[in-house]
Structures are given as C-alpha cells and as structure tokens.
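Follow-up to my earlier ticket, as requested here are the two runs.
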Amino acid sequence: MDAIADGMYADQMTPFMTLSIETGMRKSEILSITKDEISRTKRGWSVTKKDTKNGHRRVVYLSSRAVQAVQPLYDGIKAKPDNTPLFSISSHTVENWFVRARDKAGLKDLRLHDLRHEAVSRLADKGLSVGAIANQSGHKSMQTLLRYVNASEKDIRAKLEQDI
C-alpha cells in the first residue's frame, strides 16, 4: 500500500485498493460504483450493485476501514447527480499504477485479481459464513468461492481446538 500511496493517483488508488481487499469486489464493480449505489445508515455503509457479472443484484457491506477510505471520494461527489461515479480513474489507469506499485514493492508475481483472493480469505478468517462471503464477493458457485479461500494450517488447527 505504501507504493500505491506514493503515486500520482493516490487519492483514487488507495481507496480502490482498500475496497478491493476489504470487500472482495471485482475491479469493474469498484470502478463503476455511483453515488446512488452508496447507502449510508446508522448501521453502516453499503454498496448496492444492480448489474453484476452474475446478473444478480447484490448488497456489499463496507467495513469501517473501507468507509474511511471512500469517505473523501464520497464527500467530493455528494452535491453531484446520483449517477456520478465514485472513482474518476479508468481500468487502464488502475492496471498501470498497480503494476508500477507492485514492481516498486518487489512483488513481481502479484496480480490485481490476487487481492480478491486475499479478501475472500480474510473474510473467512474473520469467521463469516460461506453464504456471507459469497454475498460479499458475488460468487454464485460455492465451488468457485472455495477456490478463493486459502485456509492456513495454523488457522485450521486453532479452529479444531475451539470448544463449541
């Protein structure tokens, strides 16, 4: 994240990366978030995606860390029309800056899509049910979802020792 924070588009890339890791949303879903898709309630913030890859409407709940990251972007579009995009960067810009930051950090094998895998694994580590993880990440197939979850030996052993 430090390599991203140093870049020219840090004000956009830092929230993008945070949303990616915190929610497991696809790049296209994040970049297409509009003001009217963001709900702010006493319980917290969420993003309602009406047109997803799987063709289903989905509500993605935002962690406090994700809210903190997108708040400045939201504040910048608050007075604008409902269909105003939250992000003003293109998919191409995201890819280019990710590659630069990745290379700067010495992580040549890391792909942008790996953040989605990381997000799903983190949601599992937090103890969310498989259904909740599928909702957050937009996976329709449990088989596909399970390919994203990377359970560690340490985590498995710790869970096996827990009393119910």
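Run two:
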Amino acid sequence: MLPAKGPWPHPYYEIPDAFLDVSFVDAAGAARTVRVRHKVIGDGPPLVLVHGLMTSSYSWRYVYASLSKRYRVFAPDLVGAGETDKPVDLAYSVANVARFIDAYLGEIESGPVYLVGNSLGGLYGVATILRAPERVRRFVLMHAPGYPFLRTRALHALLGAPGLGGPLASLVASVSRRWPRAFIAKNVHYLRKDMMSEEECAEYGGQFATEGGARVFARILEESLDPDEHATIIGELQRRKRAGEAFPCPVKVLYATKDVMVPASFGPRFHEDIPGSELVWMEDASHFLQVDAPERTVDQILSFDEVAGS
C-alpha cells in the first residue's frame, strides 16, 4: 500500500503549465515541431533541469521552490515524455533528443544556461553540450549512464532482437499501459521505499495512458539505451581528453554512493573523462538525488555556480 503523497510538500501543481512549440531537424534530416509542456518558475539567471527515463518534470518537484529563489527555473517534459508530444515516427536516440534540447534551449534563452541533468538526462546533457557548446555555461551531471553495463546491454539487445524485439516491445507497452502503477513502482527506485506515492505513480503513469504513448516509451527504452551510441559519446569525451581539449564548460559530477539503476562507479569514470570536472559523493541518497536528498542537492547546485553568492 503506497501513501497518497510523498514525504514532503512541493509546489509542482501550483506552478502553471506552460507550453511552447520547439522546431528542430532530426538526425534523419526531417523537420520536426514538438509542442512542449514545461514548468517555469522564479527570476534570475536561467537554470534548466533535464529529467531521465520514465519520468518527467515532476521528478524535480522537491527542488523547484529553493532553486527559484536564485534562478529562473525551466523544467521541460522531454520529447516523448510527460505532457510533451510523443511522435511515433521519431527515432529516440540520445543524439535526436540532444537535437531537441538544443532547440529548446534556443527557444527559451538567447544566451547560455546553467544545465542540470539526472539519469539519462545527464547523458542527454553531455550530448547537447558536445553538439552545441554555446548553449551551456555550467553543467551538473547526476547519475548518468554511458559506460558498459550488462543490464543496459541485455535490455537493448532483447528489445532489438529480430523476431523477439517486436513482441517484447509490445509486451512492455502493454504492461506499462494496463498496470502503470505497478510498472512505475517496480522501476523507479529511491533510497527509502516510502518515498514512492500514489501521486507519483499517477503522474508518471499518465504517459502510458494511450497505446501510442506506451509504444513510444518502449521505443525510448530501446533506442536511448543503445550501448554503441553511448560508447560513441564516451569515446568523444576520451578523444578530447587525449587531444588536450577542454570540455566546453565547467562540470560537477554529483553521485550517490548507492544506486541500483546506474552503477555508482560511473561517477569517477565521468570525472576522469572530463578533465577539470569536480566529483562530489553524496551519502544517504540514491539514483534520484533530487528526491532522496533535495536540500543537499540544491546546496550542491548553488555552490557550483559563481552567481550563487550574488
């Protein structure tokens, strides 16, 4: 039995939904326009929060209030997630989502932003910065995948297997649509089990409410976890390091010491492959630092930015 709400109050439903159209050219050369739902709160320098797989702008609910005292906070539902459009014919590779984020940043701000990415949102952030370095002035990377990981490789291989991938993707879509509460509760992990709530299951489960949304999720699950594409991104970081090329902006690598979703060992590996980055460990937290330890996460975001003391 899950509690109706999480352990702490949050302003998520008090922040009005805002919408904008974002146009970009995908990796296949097709022009796209996506209607994006995002949360916007506060005044000050722009700070953009990028969520990961299976979540939405709701994943940042416990940090909006504190961050908005210093920044104008933008938190989009990424293409294919939340209340943003879910084109069924879009390839949901990391590269394509980075193209979308690049265009989104151009729509909301003429200059560079402070970017924070959690989980797959962290890898999206790396890919976006490598693609469009002028968009980001500072970056916090939280529990991103990217390095070889057996579970990721196995899942991608199964979903893409000839004769098996199609039926398995259909099964994922069917299960997520028919039993969204159980699907979310089983696959979104926190340090404490009582962090999960009925409110959260309803929020994240909404993206599976239609057959199209559920099928898009199954595609995101396969295409965004492509180990070859991840290796290409990491390879570019390592190439730049060998060539003595600085990463385009300062980076803080923020990881918890425990994570059942992405190995904590990836933190030091990103730190090593991004010369000059700062590695910070957080105890008593897990994959979703902004949920497990919101106050400490906010402190780390503020302390990394030169405007924090202004």
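The only thing I checked on run two: The CA atoms of residues 201 and 218 lie 18 Å apart. Let me know what else you need.
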